[in-house]
Specification:
Two copies of one chain form a homodimer. By secondary structure, chain A is α+β, with helices and mostly antiparallel strands. Chain A has a single domain, classed as Nuclear Transport Factor 2, Chain: A. Chain A has five helices and six strands; from the N terminus they run H-H-H-E-E-H-E-E-E-E-H. Chain A is globular and about 40 Å long. At the A-B interface, strand 2, helix 4, strand 3, strand 4 and strand 5 of A face strand 2, helix 4, strand 3, strand 4 and strand 5 of B.
Chain lengths: ~140, ~140
């Protein structure tokens, strides 16, 4: 099983491998990073919820038909303990067209420690208005 | 500190209290459910990311100016271990107007065990197209 082949050392390693697989449109590498659970969840920006390996795999295969997507995770906020790491990031998406001029993508990635090492249990991406500028907390407080 | 007063037994108790506080527009009850961390994250549907107690509190105070919002968490998918519970749900929102006819709200809620019991570290809500019908996984697979 490719799923159990690689022991990824940290949740950060999984996140790096996740966005690397998306950039290379490598569906096998991408799917090997998810936990071996029926209840894994993937939400693409503006789309319905997908649950389970079959639905999640099909969605990425459809995306990869147009090639890989270069995404840089930025502006990380994290909550973590020994067995779980939650990342909330801004996804800086590189596209040839300027599709993302007035919006940005926010993503929550949750990683849990499994017998095979750290794995993704949830990826929830969504669209936020405006460009990313200063920290939204400061913008609201001051 | 109201934050440490109540020992909530499970993450499910926190979720119940969270939506109850939103229904009653009770800002103190709502804010007491969050972890005492700077990096807590709240994303309202279609809005920018908020980080930290100050920004999150201000956003809910603005929402509560129009009164409470009755939300029923539905169609739960969960990933959990001893110290963390991740819920992904559909938020069934009850509004007088029929604002939500062609969309629905998806939310990820992450709870972690703290010295004060279970607390929210992240709430990420977003808009998905269409009505909620059958499980999206089945819809994609069959």
């Amino acid at each position: 099983m490719s799923r159990s082949r690689k022991q990824l050392g940290t949740a950060d390693d999984v996140e790096t491998s996740f966005y690397d697989a998306i950039a290379r449109a490598d569906i096998e590498a991408l799917m090997s990073l998810w936990a071996d659970e029926e209840d894994i969840v993937c939400i693409h920006p503006g789309a319905a919820r997908l649950v389970g390996h079959g639905a999640i795999r099909a969605s990425w295969e459809a995306i990869f038909e147009r090639g890989g997507v270069r995404i840089r995770p930025m502006k990380l906020h994290t909550a973590h303990n020994l067995m779980t790491v939650t990342h909330n990031i801004v996804e800086e998406v590189h596209r040839p067209e300027s599709e993302l001029q007035d919006i940005h993508i926010l993503a929550t990635n949750v990683y849990m420690k499994t017998p095979y090492g750290w794995r993704i249990v949830l990826h929830h991406a969504s669209i936020a208005p405006g460009k990313v500028s200063a920290d939204q907390a400061s913008a609201t407080l001051h």
